[in-house]
Amino acid sequence: MTPVTYATALYRNLLRLNGLGYLFRNVSIGMTDHGDVRNRGFLLKIKCDSVTVLRNVRQKFKTLNLKDKSVARIFCRTLHGSTQNEHNNNIHDIDYITFTNCDNDTCKILRNELLLLPNFVSEEEEKQVVLEVEPYLKRLRYESSHWDDAIHQYRETEKLKWSEKNAIIIQRIRDVAFPQGVKQISFVHVLDLKKEGFIKPHVDAVKFCGNTVAGLSLLSSSVMRFVNTDNKAQFFDVLLERRSLYIMKDTARYKYTHEILKDEESVFKGKHIPRDRRIAVICRNEP
């Protein structure tokens, strides 16, 4: 697929995250390889019939600070699901999700309220984030269970200040995950899950965060399961590959529990996904 096609997918998903997917039919995008936008990336020229949305999305592109060809790389799986099935409610063939007893409403949730961005950071960026949080995490011991019994074999911290390089990564997460003007929790949640650790089904407490949760998965791939709170027979599994970013919001955040499966349960499309120590860097908006 051409870079323009990938850019179109990127723009479509930014609109969807802002609840403006319906505008995509009236959008045209042109792309030129500029070589240097904020030191790296693409220059995107966007035309839209809404000046407000145009301004918002342009700003997101400017602040993403993506590496050359990152647009193609990090959105390739979202594109696989959204362009090939744009006029088809059946999106069960998206390669990072498997469904069980799910109906079209679940597909709609996937399209609008659950997004996965593979390879959101490079190997080097992963190393520099881990190096920054590791000294503090090493002073903590792994806890057998969380205060609400949701997390087992973990340690965690909240981080406000980051090195200059890592602050760019954190801002990149925020720019992609949250619409402009949304109040965000300043502290970033860093959750270190031991190889033997796991997260039980839960819905994040509404008093601690708002409608959107964005998590960067480091050091290990894993399988996250979402289960309908009203119908536990309806669920879907999401493959969170190492260095990917997931964004869940609204119904996916409130009406589905989510969990990280144990290593012995970590199976996706019949294949075992080996679990190792996993660090999640999580950004949330205010309640």
What is the element layout, followed by pairings?
Layout (H helix, E strand, L loop, with lengths): L2 H15 L10 E5 L10 E5 L3 H14 L5 H5 L1 H7 L14 E4 L3 H10 E4 L5 H15 L13 E9 L4 H14 L10 E15 L9 E7 L3 E7 L6 E6 L4 E5 L1 H4 L1 E5 L6 E2 L2 E2 L5 E7 L3
Antiparallel strand pairs: 1-2, 3-9, 4-10, 5-6, 6-11, 6-14, 7-10, 7-14, 8-9, 8-11, 12-13
Give an overview of the whole structure.
Residues 1-6, 18-55 and 65-93 have low confidence and may be disordered. The protein has helices at residues 3-17, 51-64, 70-74, 76-82, 104-113, 123-137, 164-177, 251-254; strands spanning 28-32, 43-47, 97-100, 114-117, 151-159, 188-202, 212-218, 222-228, 235-240, 245-249, 256-260, 267-268, 271-272, 278-284. Helix content is 29%, strand content 29%. It folds into two domains: 3-88, no CATH class; 116-284, Alpha-ketoglutarate-dependent dioxygenase AlkB-like (Jelly Rolls, Sandwich). α1 (3-17) crosses α4 (76-82). The protein is of the alpha+beta class.
Question: What attributes does this structure have?
Answer:
ten-stranded antiparallel sheet; 287 residues; 29% helix; two-stranded antiparallel sheet; 8 helices; globular; alpha+beta; 2 domains; Jelly Rolls
Can you give the helix content as a percent range?
25-40%
Mean pLDDT: 75
What kind of oligomer do you see? Answer: single chain
**How does the overall form come out from the CA principal axes?**
globular
> Architecture of the largest domain, CATH level 2?
Sandwich
Low-confidence region ranges: 1-6, 18-55, 65-93
CATH class of the largest domain: Mainly Beta
CATH-assigned homologous superfamily of the largest domain = Alpha-ketoglutarate-dependent dioxygenase AlkB-like
Number of domains: 2
Within the CATH hierarchy, at the fold level, what is the topology of the largest domain? Jelly Rolls
How would you classify the helix and strand content by structural class? alpha+beta
